[in-house]
Recover the amino acids of this structure.
């Protein structure tokens, strides 16, 4: 069976075409739980009490408790949906069933029953197993790779995933966050879940006692993404990507970088890269640099606007000369 990203699973849910069996993996417990509960959207809110079942099996580690938990799970998964196309069964801490602490006759019976269920899941039930790391060499994991859709909940693909991760993390602490603050956090960290986690943890500590986290809190606590890659703007100019270069310039300016430092970096780019990559664009680029330097020294305009104009001119020169060179 395939391995999907959380985004791909959400598309399945939105389209109303889920797979019958999922294994949600990864160390991010909050993200796994949030994604599991998004499957509830397959059932109308009024009918969820009859068609959505959440089974907690954290204490069913061995013996008759394990057998009882597996029997309850199988019964829930085999129950027909009521007045809807799908029934949803969510199993939290599923690793206690899939990898019990002690092997015993009871555990073997329970595993045999689980294997029968996983090998032929009912297409009218969506069974979601939420589990911590499993031994990939185990018989049960190998069985699930054949019959279940595997989902790694530690992967963020784009800005939307990052925003969703921030909202879930903050909501789990019983705090609200402004939509613009969510957006700013996601833009600054990008789909880097490790950095997002660090930023949000520091933000929660900083805003301790506040009912709402604001944009000002994010600006104060979370460093811009440009600080992680100070050459992102020159790289974008090299590629002739004005939109990306302007975004990176905004991050650099928001971080408080002096205009002279930014100009110096752009001067280095023109001196060292343009002669090789776009020699025909060199005179035009040097002229733009000189004019911007003079305007900054004369305070002939807002420094940020002057730098934005320079970035656009450099990108334009790079693109036009590249285009001319191809003809």
């Amino acid at each position: 069976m395939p391995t999907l990203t959380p985004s791909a699973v959400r598309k399945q849910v939105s389209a109303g075409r889920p797979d019958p069996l999922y294994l949600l993996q990864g160390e991010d417990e909050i993200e796994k739980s949030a994604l599991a509960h998004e499957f509830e959207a397959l059932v109308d809110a009024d009918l969820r009490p009859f068609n959505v079942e959440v089974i907690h099996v954290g204490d069913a580690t061995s013996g008759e408790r394990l057998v009882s938990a597996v029997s309850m799970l199988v019964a829930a998964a085999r129950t027909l949906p009521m007045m809807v196309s799908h029934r949803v069964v969510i199993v939290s801490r599923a690793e206690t069933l899939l990898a019990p602490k002690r092997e015993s006759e009871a555990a073997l019976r329970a595993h045999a029953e689980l294997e029968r269920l996983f090998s032929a899941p009912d297409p009218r039930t969506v069974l979601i197993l939420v589990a911590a790391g499993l031994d990939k060499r185990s018989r049960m994991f190998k069985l699930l790779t054949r019959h279940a859709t595997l989902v790694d909940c530690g992967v963020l693909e784009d800005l939307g995933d990052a925003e969703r991760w921030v909202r879930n993390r903050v909501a789990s602490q019983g705090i609200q966050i402004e939509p613009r603050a969510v957006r700013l956090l996601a833009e600054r960290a990008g789909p880097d879940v490790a950095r997002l986690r660090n930023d949000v943890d520091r933000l929660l500590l900083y805003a301790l006692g506040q009912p709402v986290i604001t944009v000002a809190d994010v600006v104060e606590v979370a460093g811009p993404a440009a600080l992680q890659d100070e050459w992102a703007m020159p790289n974008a100019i090299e590629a002739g990507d004005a939109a990306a270069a302007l975004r990176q310039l905004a991050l650099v300016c928001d971080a408080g970088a002096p205009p002279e430092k930014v100009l110096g970096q752009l001067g280095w780019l023109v001196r060292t890269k343009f002669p090789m990559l776009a020699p025909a664009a060199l005179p035009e680029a040097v002229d733009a640099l000189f004019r911007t330097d003079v305007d900054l020294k004369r305070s002939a305009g807002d420094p940020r606007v002057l730098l934005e104009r320079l970035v656009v001119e450099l990108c334009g020169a790079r693109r036009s000369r590249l285009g001319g060179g191809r003809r």
Q: What stands out?
A: The beta strands are 3-4, 21-25, 52-56, 87-92, 125-130, 149-152, 176-177, 212-213. Residues 322-327 have pLDDT under 50 and may be disordered. Residues 3-152 form a domain with the Rossmann fold fold (CATH 3.40.50.300). The two ends are 48 Å apart (CA to CA).
